[in-house]
Design a protein that fits this description.
By secondary structure, the chain is α+β, with helices and mostly antiparallel strands. 20% of the residues lie in helices and 43% in strands. Strands 1, 2, 3, 4, 5, 6 and 7 form a seven-stranded mixed sheet that branches. It is globular and about 40 Å long. It has three helices and seven strands. It comes from Rhodocyclus tenuis (Rhodospirillum tenue). InterPro entries: NUDIX_hydrolase-like_dom_sf (IPR015797), NUDIX_hydrolase_dom (IPR000086), NudJ (IPR033713).
Length: 148
Amino acid sequence: MIWKPHVTVAAVVERDGKFLLVEEETDEGIRYNQPAGHLECGESLLEAAVREAREETRYDFAPRALVGVYNWRHPTKDITYLRFAFAGEVVGFDPERALDEGIIAAHWFSLDEVRALADRHRSPLILQCIEDWLAGRRYPLELLTHYA
């Protein structure tokens, strides 16, 4: 068996002191996550972050900085995730757009509310990414290179 990490992207979006999270159905029950998902064949990391935010929240996301790259191994599954988290802003919204299968709703939560939901986070990366963003971790998008 060949080991390989699952490459994912996440959008860290703060507006008026609240953070955008999605409520989703998972095999572990209802969980909360940033708008996030897997990198698809042929797309750049930035394209993936924009697409996932749109599909999961109906919001158009404009990445402005890289918050960090996170390597996390799920404690009960034989899966390692390599997450690229991007900070950015909402630049549009389409209320008619369908949400991805399994997504219940998008919510805006204060930091205290995000922390209060920690036992229902999909992974510890949700709060870590927000705390890193709050700590000022922002790296230029020019760090990333995509060859089509």
